[in-house]
Design brief:
CATH topology of the largest domain: Rossmann fold
Radius of gyration: 33 Å
Strand order of the largest sheet: 5-4-3-6-7-12
Number of strands: 13
Largest sheet: 6 strands, mixed
Mean pLDDT: 82
CATH class of the largest domain: Alpha Beta
Shape: elongated
CATH architecture of the largest domain: 3-Layer(aba) Sandwich
Number of helices: 11
Number of domains: 2
Length: 346
């Protein structure tokens, strides 16, 4: 396992191309000034020891030394020990509806963006619990398998949008079944949290919930949206609103929250139903309840020891700087004598 302890220092490498361009421009300007001072034929007489090649060699050495110092400052590290670390927690699968109706803006900035924001907050609060994400519309897919890598979970969450699932619909039953089958055999408490507007659900939800309960899996539901119905905005590829979704006869389609179905799922799933709003952190309430569940112990393979390897770059940097110090910008006398014998210099 390899990593940088201070990766922010690597940004200094972006200065290298800039410095190279500036050095080239300075050299070109120097040549122009010398040509104005004297003809090109007189340069060898006026500046007999000047060596442009050595000037470039010294510059390249300095650049290489600088790059090595940057890598040394970033402190490369190598993982030297992998062991099973005992962790305690519960397993949570979040089912996130990504159907087009989740673009509705009765929850600001939209139902889907609000849900993603709250899920991210929940992920940041987890300590030792494993979390997974299943996205669904007409079909259900695992976006994040059960993991304690919360940074990766947030990364994959940020990529979710209404185009993440090709077929439209609200396959809650399929998502529940997928979550149930994706839990492993560890004796942890298992929880499913479904976030959806509950509209136009497909499949046998009752059977899916009963299957989950038979395996001691609790189901919480969070309903997003208004019961009165709102239009579904349509966006172009630039993220600009271009109107609202319409049916086959040209009427604007309204989407509304199906609370009754979600309440029934939560009750049958031995969980609770929460109504999402613009202001309340509904996932925070669920997290509080999850803290009361029994924390089971499980093992996770982790790299526990890292060793610094900054000296792999620091030593070459020092050597390069010492070499650069002893290289002058003047031509070597030996080089001049050889050229003179070969008749290359007058």
């Amino acid at each position: 396992m390899f990593r940088f302890a201070n990766p922010e220092y690597l940004n200094l490498l972006y200065f290298i191309p800039v410095v190279i361009v500036l050095f080239w421009l300075l050299n070109r300007n120097r040549k122009k000034l010398l040509q104005k001072f004297a003809d090109l034929d007189l340069h060898k007489t006026l500046f007999p020891t000047d060596s442009s090649i050595k000037r470039w060699v010294k510059f390249v050495i300095i650049i290489l030394a600088f790059a090595c110092l940057v890598f040394a400052a970033a402190n490369p590290q190598v993982g030297t020990k992998m062991q099973e670390v005992k962790q305690t927690g519960i397993d949570v699968f979040i089912l996130l509806d990504v159907s087009f109706s989740m673009n509705a803006e009765d929850i600001k900035p939209s139902r889907l963006e609000k849900a993603k924001y709250q899920i991210s907050n929940l992920i940041n609060k987890l300590r030792g619990d494993r979390i997974g994400l299943i996205i669904f519309a007409g079909q259900a897919y695992i976006q994040i398998p059960l993991t304690t890598d919360y940074s990766a979970a947030n990364l994959f969450l940020s990529a979710v949008d209404v185009n993440s699932v090709p077929s439209q619909g609200t396959a809650i039953a399929s998502a529940i079944d997928l979550a149930v089958n994706s839990f492993d055999s560890l004796s942890t408490d298992k929880v499913i949290i479904a976030i959806t507007d509950g509209e136009d659900h497909e499949g046998d939800v009752v059977e899916a919930v009963e299957n989950a309960v038979s395996k001691n899996i609790k189901i919480y539901t969070i309903g997003l949206g208004s019961s009165g119905g709102v239009p579904i905005p349509i966006y172009n590829k630039y993220g600009q609103s271009v109107g609202f979704k319409k049916d086959k006869v040209g009427n604007t389609v309204l989407t509304k929250l199906d609370e009754e179905t979600l309440k029934q799922i939560a009750v049958a799933g031995s969980g609770k139903y929460f109504r999402g709003t613009n202001y309340e952190d509904y996932l925070d309430k669920i997290y509080t309840e999850l803290g009361e569940l029994e924390q089971a112990e499980f093992g996770v393979k982790k790299v526990t020891d890292y060793e610094d390897r900054f000296y792999y770059f620091l030593i070459p940097a020092i050597i390069l700087l010492v070499i650069e110090f002893f290289i002058s910008e003047k031509k070597s006398p030996l080089y001049a004598r050889i050229n003179k014998k070969l008749g290359l210099e007058q």
